[in-house]
Amino acid sequence: MSEENKVSLSAIYGQKAGMTRIFDESGKHVPVTVVKLIPNFISQVKTKDKDGYEAYQVSYGEKREKLVTKAVKGHLAKASISKALSKSAEVQEKSVSLENLGKEVSLEAFAPKTFVDITGTSKGKGFAGVMKRYGFAGGPGAHGSKFHRTTGSIGNRATPGRVFALKKMPGHMGVDTKTVQNLEVVEVNVEQGYMLIRGSIPGAKNGFIKIAKALKK
Hints:
Blueprint: E1 6-7, E2 11-23, E3 29-37, E4 41-46, H1 48-51, E5 55-62, H2 70-78, E6 85-92, E7 104-105, E8 115-121, E9 126-128, H3 130-134, E10 171-173, E11 177-189, E12 194-198, E13 208-213
Parallel strand pairs: 1-7
Antiparallel strand pairs: 2-3, 2-13, 3-12, 4-5, 5-6, 8-11, 8-13, 9-10, 11-12
């Protein structure tokens, strides 16, 4: 698709491909995350008159056609999108245009040396204790101690006679929405379909991530 039929937004979605390293012009070692560039299309335009706010719904995550429901296919067909996209999310903009419906999102806003905020779902660690989950110190490591990695006291006196809500205790760790701010875009290669971002980003390999313009830069 030509650049004329594309629209630039403040956020785009990609897939984490893994990590590697490169060397800059001065020979310094730079750890980078490789992000696979995937097609993003505007599947719906939210307007103040109809929805009460302005935003674009962006669809991404292409699958085999038979794995996408008829409802989603019909929604994409209204926007004249032929690809079988399975995921969608909203990107709020200051102003929207109905003419952009069905257009592909460009990478114009994410040139090298720009800063971005990356949002993804962190890796799942399963059921974890308080030492791994919250960094508790634990008890003595000696043989005579019977308090090594457990939680310790969680209660209080007869008043209030209960455990307070949000008490840090063992439980499911990971699979949380995490955002890392102010990461630098090192390289964008549209022909080979990848982007290099300095440092690490949340999520497992092949997980979907949101790349947005940095709010604090």
